[in-house]
Structures are given as structure tokens and as C-alpha cells.
């Protein structure tokens, strides 16, 4: 089971759970796996508490219904695959309550809960793992990681250890050279308190962006994020594309995701003064539009 | 389309083409892709020319029949995936003529020919690519590599270039650090003439093993190989396992593959005097049995 707009990779099994861009899936065979819906919140959150809680409820009902439907049809759902923040799909966030209840559904229906932390893992949300923001009563069953973690991997609960040898095996077995580099990366994250830097820089970005969305509501809205893992929407796709293009001309690399989001993905060493440079140039772009 | 006993990887799409050990495929969903048969030769080759030529013919007929069957059933065969030497499946070899005719079938039926050089690529057969032994009139359409090549990759003919951007894409795009290391590996292979070393050491191994199979026919037979990519059979599975285990006790790491093969996979720096150490210890094992 995966969700609409999810991105979980490009090899064939992963791709069966990916639903962000049609181009990714073109010509590749896929599987009859259920696709649920990731919550689509209205922003600012504090003005839409009731609607967003209803959206959570509706999405959770869809998940549980799909599991029962597939289980009943003899295609039992072995697991649920979800991003802590649905990145490629548009930087879509869901509440801690949503993830807590999703974990309850997983446990109740016997499906494993896999949280895909390929984009969120390693610090960019201000915690080492994105799912640490959700106060889950217990760890997810499986967590996948890559990107900032330098090598692709996953950790898992002991009961998910394959009972037979040779079930999970490959030539480089985790690529030891990358693991040595990763140890150094983690040492530097701790030594330089980079998770705190991410939180501080993220606060500067959020504060600035929330001001801009009040000041330029004709151009941007829906700022959301954790740490420096932040996005805002252009009022439509061409507005978004124009912002991304104009930022590039001012030396700022930001990306598009989903239909109309601009996403910010700085490195962990991005500091508050870098955040101010970003805001300064973004405001110039917003004035130009 | 893949062949029985083939090993092409463990991710889901790859696994649909892998048929070497049942344990690899347990619990993993698969696809209705045709599986042909890889030639099973009788050794020594020079005493079984007629039977082996018939085996080639039979296997090629199966390939062509399967393609027509699947094409006719509305499941067109887009490509043929094959190892130059079927390694995990038991170090099964096929003649240059077999591969030449397979390429003709591929061209005639519009299926791409992918040669999986993950084990054979990078020198162990005494040529840089295993398929160079086959004198194909033109290059395969796609060649995959890994292991000795340090990073997983493939090369392909220009007409296989995706027509749209973003079709083939991932975070590290070939892992540039590994490509730098690979450049150095290739420089050393050239500087130290390692392909010639592989041929010389392989000749010593083959000569010694062919003598042993005459001297100890109650234990081993069917020596075959290219370069140092060599295997021989135990007379049965338990004999094979016993040889591999006893070699280990004498400091020699060899592997089993297929039902009863012992495979030798030395590094490219393995020299004729190392081959003599191997033969000396193997003969001690054969005397012990």
C-alpha cells in the first residue's frame, strides 16, 4: 500500500509505490497494489484546524478500507509505505496524529509500517529522522534512508530479520567505504551541532516566508516545513516556475515539486545569515513579478 | 525474456529475470515474462561437438518460439537478458555461435539484446568484456556491469537513449567518486597488463585442472572457463561441497555454483605462481577424498 503523489524510487518494485510524476512510470510494468491518499492540508494550519482534522480522518478511513478490501480479495496488504513529508509530490505534510493513527491501523491489520526517509533522514527537518516529529509510541517497523546518509539502506525491527541467510544479500553489502564516510558525517553533525543550526536557519526562513505570503498574497501562499525542509506554493504552476527560474538568475537554486510548490533543500551547514540572503533575493523576485 | 538458471539481480524487476536459487525469489511478486533455456553442454567439448551443437540449436528454437508465442499473445518481448557465462546457475558456457545466432533472433524479432556482464565484465575472462569472446558482428544493445567495475551501470546503443529527460535519473547519477576510483582501476589494468596476466594464469589453471580430471575422474570433471573465470564439477553435490570445504581449510576460498560446480574467481592480480599454489592444494584435497 502506498499513497497518491508518493515517490519511493525508480526500480520496479519501488516504482509500483511511486505516484508523483507520470513520466517516471511510463513503459514500466507495475503491480496491483492499493494506493491510498496522502492528506492535502489547507494553510495556514491554525486557520483550518477543523478541515485538516477532517482530511486526516478521511485519509485514514481510505487506508483502512483499502486494506480490508484487498485482504478480503485474497491480496493481503503486507505493508504500508509512506514518506514523513511527501516531497516529490509537493512537500505535503501530515499531522503527528495522522501518523500515530496510521501506525495503529498498521498494527491492527497486521501490515508493516515502512517510513521512507530518503529525503527527510539525516537532519534536514531539524531532527535526525523526520518521523521523530510524530511522537510515535513505538518506532516504525522499517525505515529506509539514502541521500544525506550517503548510501542506500534501511533499519528494521528485530522480528523483520529474515529467518534464512542469503535472503538479503548483495556484492557490496552496504558499501563499507560509504559507511566509513557516513560515520564522519555523523561525527561532524554532532560536533558542529548542525541539527540546531538547521532549526535556527529554518526558523529564520519560516518567519520570513510567512511575512512574504502576507505581503505578496498575489504570488505565494501555504508556507510549511520542518527545520529547513520548507516549501511554499506559487499561486499557480506558471507563477511557481517563474519564481524558480528567477531565483536561479539571482544565484539561488530552489526546486519545484508537486503542482505549484517551491521547495527549499539547503545543506545542513546552511546558517541563519544564508537564510537572510535567500529571503533578500526571493523578495527581489517577488517584487519583479 | 530470460533463461532458466540465470541470475540478474535481486531488486524486483531484476528478480523477475533471475532463476538460479529458489530462495532468492521467495515471497517476492514476479511477472509473466518468458524463461528460455541456457545451453547445457557436455564436456570435454571436443568429444561432444555434435551433441553440443544440437543443444545450441534446441535452445535457440525455444527462444524464438517463446518470443513468437508471447508476441502473439499480446505480451510482446521487448528484450532478451543473458549472461555471457551463466555464473550463479553453475558456470554454464555457450558457444560464440550460440550468441551470434541469439543476436540474429533478437534483431529479427525486434527484441533488444542485453548482456549482463556483472560477473564477467572488467577482465576476469581475459578480455575486458565477456562478450568479446563471441565475435558478434555488432555490439549488444545494452551491457550491464558492476563488481569489478566498482559501481553499477550499463552502456547502450544510441537508439536506446531515452527520448525524454528524467526517464533515467537518481540522486548520485553513477556515483562520481566511484567513477574516479574506476578510472584508476582501469589505468592499473592497462599499466600492469592484467588482462595478459589473467590469460596466463587461466592457462595454468586450465591445464592443471584438465590433468586432474583425467587423474581423478572419480571426483571431478567438466572443467571449463575463459581467463581465470573457471569452474569444474564435482561428481555430485556432496563431493562438490566437500571440495569447497576442504579447500577452505587449506586457505583457498572457492565458491560453489549451480548443482555441483566449484567456481574459481581470483582477482585480476592473480599470477601463474598463485595458480600453482591453488593446484597444489586442490590436488592434496583430491587425494584426501
TrEMBL record, chains A, B:
Which family is annotated?
Belongs to the class-III pyridoxal-phosphate-dependent aminotransferase family.
* GO cellular component terms given for this protein: mitochondrion
Molecular function as annotated in GO:
pyridoxal phosphate binding; transaminase activity
Highest classification ranks of the organism: Eukaryota, Metazoa, Ecdysozoa, Arthropoda, Crustacea
Q: What UniProt keywords apply to this chain's record, in alphabetical order?
A: Aminotransferase, Pyridoxal phosphate, Transferase
Cofactor names from the entry are: pyridoxal 5'-phosphate
Q: Does the keyword Transmembrane helix apply?
A: no
Q: Name one GO biological process term.
A: gamma-aminobutyric acid catabolic process
Among PANTHER family, the record links this protein to:
4-AMINOBUTYRATE AMINOTRANSFERASE, MITOCHONDRIAL, AMINOTRANSFERASE
Name-wise, this protein is 4-aminobutyrate aminotransferase
Give the source species: Halocaridina rubra (Hawaiian red shrimp)
Amino acid at each position: 500500500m502506498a499513497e497518491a503523489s508518493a515517490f519511493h524510487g525508480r526500480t520496479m518494485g519501488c516504482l509500483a509505490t511511486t505516484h508523483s510524476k507520470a513520466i517516471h512510470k511510463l513503459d514500466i510494468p507495475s503491480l496491483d497494489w492499493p494506493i491510498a491518499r496522502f492528506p492535502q492540508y489547507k494553510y495556514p494550519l491554525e486557520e483550518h484546524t477543523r478541515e485538516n482534522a477532517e482530511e486526516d480522518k478521511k485519509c485514514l478511513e481510505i487506508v483502512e478500507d483499502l486494506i480490508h478490501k484487498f485482504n478480503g480479495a485474497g491480496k493481503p496488504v503486507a505493508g504500508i509505505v509512506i514518506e514523513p513529508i511527501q516531497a516529490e509530490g509537493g512537500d505535503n505534510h501530515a499531522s503527528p496524529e495522522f501518523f500515530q493513527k496510521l501506525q495503529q491501523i498498521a498494527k491492527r491489520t497486521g501490515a508493516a509500517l515502512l517510513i521512507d526517509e530518503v529525503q527527510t533522514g539525516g537532519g534536514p527537518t531539524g531532527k535526525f529522522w523526520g518521523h521523530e516529529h510524530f511522537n510515535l509510541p513505538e518506532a516504525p517497523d522499517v525505515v529506509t534512508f539514502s541521500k544525506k546518509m550517503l548510501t542506500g539502506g534501511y533499519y528494521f525491527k528485530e522480528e523483520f530479520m529474515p529467518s534464512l541467510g542469503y535472503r538479503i544479500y548483495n556484492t557490496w553489502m552496504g558499501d563499507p567505504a560509504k559507511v566509513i564516510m557516513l560515520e564522519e558525517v555523523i561525527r561532524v553533525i554532532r560536533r558542529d551541532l548542525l541539527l540546531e543550526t538547521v532549526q535556527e536557519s529554518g526558523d529564520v526562513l519560516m518567519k520570513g516566508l510567512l511575512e512574504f505570503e502576507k505581503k505578496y498574497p498575489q504570488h505565494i501562499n501555504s508556507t510549511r516545513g520542518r527545520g529547513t525542509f520548507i516549501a511554499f506554493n506559487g499561486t499557480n504552476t506558471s507563477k511557481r516556475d517563474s519564481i524558480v527560474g528567477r531565483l536561479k538568475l539571482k544565484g539561488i537554486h530552489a526546486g519545484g515539486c508537486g503542482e505549484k510548490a517551491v521547495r527549499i533543500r539547503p545543506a545542513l551547514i546552511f546558517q541563519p545569515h544564508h537564510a537572510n540572503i535567500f529571503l533578500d533575493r526571493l523578495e527581489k523576485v517577488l517584487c519583479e513579478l
